[in-house]
Amino acid sequence: MPDKLIFAGVLQPGDDLLLLHLGEQGFLVDCQNDAFEVLDQLRSGSCSALLICQHLFGLSPEELLTEAQIGSPGLPSFLILDAGRSSRLEKGSCEILPRPLNPAAVEKMLRQTIEAARQKPSARLSDARIPQIIGQSDAIQKLKKTIAMVAGKNCNVLISGETGTGKELVAKAIHYQSARANQPLVSINCGAIPENLLEDELFGHTKGAFTSAHNQRIGRFEQADKGTLFLDEIGTMNHDLQVKLLRVLQEREFQRLGSNSSIRVDIRLVAATNADLPAMVQEKRFRSDLYYRLNVFPIQLPPLRARAADISLLAEYFLGRFCTQYQTPPKRLAEDALEMLEEYEWPGNIRELENVMETAVILSDDCPVIDIPHLQNIPSFSRPVREVPPSSLDVDVSLDFPEEGVDFQEVVFQLERKLLTEGLKRSGGNRSRAAAYLNLKRTTLLEKIRRLQLE
Fold this sequence. Notes:
This protein has helices spanning 15-24, 35-42, 61-71, 103-119, 138-151, 167-176, 195-203, 220-223, 239-251, 277-282, 288-294, 311-325, 335-343, 349-364, 408-426, 431-437, 442-451; strands spanning 4-8, 28-32, 49-53, 77-81, 95-98, 157-160, 185-189, 204-205, 217-218, 228-232, 253-255, 262-264, 268-273, 297-300, 332-333, 369-370.
């Protein structure tokens, strides 16, 4: 694949000649005049060099360079200075290209700097880049094993689950535990981009492909070459684009908008959805052949309400993170507040819990304890009244053993129900006290309550 460059800034007289020359010499040039769009492009990791013009929207050239070097350390960077202008950058932080630009000289400097960067030993993948999936429940332990198993395989993965369950986090974990970990991970939310723009985002375009296509644009497929492409909310993609995506997955090649030349790519595709794709296939709203291509290895994420044992761990994690972010002393959760968190159904899943904890840290101010009044983002709800017939509360461990035998699982099931019902009754419904009464861990009690349908 040719080297990819980002030209950051508004084109000035003579810049078009430079870009034309670089294109003729085999470089792929992506022009962006918005600094934040540049940083978004750099996150793909597929850029070979960055050229920054002084005429830029969003950030100053110096601010953009600083952000770029933080997110992409070692990336060859060049600052184009207008005649008679100087820069506040420290000497050696980047290469300086004074105007007027000599296309041949710039090309030579680019090739030398890019090659020198390639010769440096690549940094070893740090474990810190592998996302931390927090939880000790059986569902999360199984998920971690599944990720470790599929990460080393080069197959397509389809992640399904409700909004806020952590689908992008799982996609990152798969990428960073795979052989492609040092290659780009490129993400795009298909539902967040208008239908008429999504094709351009995915495949890019050539100069003159349509009225406003003043420069060539590299799409996400090219950015993800040799790495992983994560397509979130895949169920929102329209039918025509589904056809084009299917062809790319089958042929491993595509064409930019406005071009007749095919470009081959080596990518691993991870897709995610909160929609019921099998139902959409039945309703002819999603192509069955594309669904089977995507669903080579399915992963279903559990909602937070199905993993109550992890709520306290996640709450403590977010509590620590936001205390650090807002520079407040460490805080802890009161028992009643924790119980409220564990009894809430969390329709927004982990993302909702994260928002609740952030608000709680802000509202608690200097208070070292997060209590129920600080959990204002949780809709008010009344705890369910448990109506338990008195006759069922007598714990009797004596058992009858009829000649025909007993159903072991049923006997254990009923005995556990009696024990937990009695413990909850004697504790007035307080689960922490019930766990202490039954000599169980609180998380174990919560799992049993849900498994035995004692909500």
